[in-house]
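Inverse folding, one chain.
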């Protein structure tokens, strides 16, 4: 479902001023987006419905970067594995059996 919570991500930077201000970005797939939660924390949420039969796992990249000059960054890969739902009814292979 859209807007489903996938993860809560927290960032921190012990520097002061602009060097300690962190911004985050999420890359890898349009089915996910990053939403600010509270100071230094972000929610990774679904931007579209996921279907395990179509895509079983997604590889995402989270980038945290400070506002220093030059900016410093940390890059973290994340794998989201999609659980299977019982969303397909059983089917008969033929319309009539004799």
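Residues assigned per position:
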């Amino acid at each position: 479902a859209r807007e489903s919570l996938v993860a809560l991500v927290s960032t921190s930077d012990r520097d002061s001023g602009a060097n300690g201000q962190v911004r985050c970005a999420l890359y890898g797939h349009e089915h996910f987006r990053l939403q600010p939660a509270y100071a230094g924390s972000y929610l990774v949420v679904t931007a579209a419905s996921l279907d395990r039969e179509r895509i079983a796992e997604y590889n995402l990249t989270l980038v945290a970067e400070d506002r220093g000059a030059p900016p410093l960054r940390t890059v973290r890969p994340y794998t989201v594995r999609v659980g299977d739902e019982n969303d397909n009814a059983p089917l008969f292979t033929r319309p009539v059996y004799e």
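The first strand starts at residue 5 and ends at 10. The beta strands are 5-10, 22-27, 32-38, 41-46, 57-66, 73-81.
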